[in-house]
Amino acid sequence: MGVLIQSDPISTDSFQTNMGLKADIDEAVQHWDRSPWRIKVFLVIALFLTTTSLASLSEAVFKWKGFILDALTFYQTWISHPLVELIQGLVGRPLPPNFVDNAIVMGLFFGGLIRGHLLRNLPRVRLVAEVAFFIGAYALMLYAFAIDRPAQREMSSWFFYPIFLLVAYGLSKGAERILALSYMLIPVFGIAVIAAISAGLSK
Question: Whole domain around residue 84: which residue ranges?
Fold first, then answer.
């Protein structure tokens, strides 16, 4: 008498999910040696931060609050406001106060997508066309951001930065995903570190 063995669909789905995660990890490992040094530094720092003890969560939140405030002050004082004044002097007309913020955030977003996109094994013509599409979309957004509208004066793309990270995560996979997110996160984290050092030296 034959015995009919039915597979558990939940176990099968779990197995397929684990295999997909393993494939992403294996692909990332394969690209590790070819990754730029800044990607490797970012991954090491991210691993260190994930080891923070949950028991000291409240203290960590308090410290991160000051860290973020120092970063915002440093960014506005030394990057955002000077760039707005410089660009206004070059174009000869006033720009919205949040123009630089929007340009930087969208530049990080499209730059990360392009850098990750270059890992794909696509025909050269298609790759050039898709990269050109990203650059064109960024240029159109810059033009839209340069128009001073009262409704968008108080709106900054930094508020939507986490959403852009999620979109970049969803549009990429494997090593491409790690590379795209690194290009979006490393400049922001670098500014925050410089701000923290500057604040510490001034005290």
Answer: 9-202
